[in-house]
Write a structure and sequence with these properties.
This protein has 5 helices and 10 strands, in the order ααβββββαββββαβα. By secondary structure, it is of the alpha+beta class. The strands form 2 sheets. The chain has an 8-stranded antiparallel sheet. It has a two-stranded antiparallel sheet with strand order 2-10. It is elongated.
């Protein structure tokens, strides 16, 4: 019988303690499978968390209802910021019959003074608009003025320019309208710094020159009661007050730019 040799590799202790390659490969496969299962479970858990969060947000939005549209609302508890100073002339507007303040959800504010004539008929209106981020274009603002002047809206055309303590102010009238007791004259101007829009209309008087004078007096008599912590607005009115003149001298000269009739080369707005 052949004796066993300690030097024989087939019977060495090292050879006897080694793990068979097939067993090693099986263990690696098991570990990889377990790792993949953990990864799949983790992804499913993540999707579940995201789904629950989305469902909760959807439930909150449905409970809250649709987001309200940006719009104007009446500010009942806000005090007036503007007024017209007294006048010695009997041909000018005095204390307004109504004062309405509107606030926009985007930050704008409108102070609207209005006057009524015989039979509670609208006689004149003055709007001071301090815009927020909702500031519309000039074209849109003039279209809104047309709707205020004429029920149902109208096309406005240029009707000259007047000078006021706020600078030049464009005059507007209903396109094709003839001068007379029933006609009205609108006005519109924008100031850049601070952002401010002043507009309105007047039907007072029997002729367009009379309405021009009324509008000029209205603008020069416009005073600031409170700036609501807007120093630039207070500065604007302080500078404008230095340019204020008597109402009798506020009508503009009747040249081709400021004539009461609409110049032929100016089109409708």
């Amino acid at each position: 019988m052949q004796p066993f040799s300690a030097d024989d590799p087939a019977y060495s202790p090292y050879h006897q303690n080694r793990i068979h390659p097939a067993l090693t490969s099986f263990a690696d496969e098991v570990c990889a499978t377990v790792a993949r299962l953990f990864a799949y479970v983790g992804v499913l858990a993540l999707f579940g968390i995201l789904g629950i969060q989305a469902w909760n947000e959807l439930g909150v939005n449905l409970a809250a209802g649709p987001t309200p549209e940006a719009t104007w609302r009446v500010a009942d508890h806000t005090g007036p910021a503007f007024a017209l100073s007294p006048s010695d002339s009997s041909n000018t507007l005095e204390r307004s019959d109504a004062y309405v303040i509107l606030r926009h959800s985007a930050g704008g504010r409108k102070d609207i003074l209005s006057w009524l004539g015989p039979g509670e008929k609208a006689l004149a209106e003055l709007e001071i608009y301090r815009p927020g981020s909702e500031y519309p274009s000039v074209a849109a603002a003039r279209a809104e003025l047309a709707a205020r002047m004429v029920p149902g809206g109208a096309v406005l055309e240029a009707a000259g320019v007047i000078e006021s303590k706020f600078g030049s102010v464009a005059l507007l009238r209903q396109a094709g309208a003839k001068d007379g007791p029933s006609s009205c004259l609108g006005f519109f101007t924008r100031i850049d710094d601070p952002a401010l829009q002043i507009s309105g209309w007047s039907c007072q008087g029997d002729s367009r020159p009379t309405r021009r004078t009324t509008i000029a007096c209205m603008l020069d008599r416009l005073t600031l009661l409170t700036s609501e912590n807007e120093p630039r607005l207070a500065e604007l009115f302080a500078r404008a007050e230095l340019k204020r003149g008597p109402c009798a001298s506020t009508t503009a000269s009747a040249d081709w730019v400021t004539a009461t009739e609409n110049p032929a080369l100016r089109g409708a707005f």
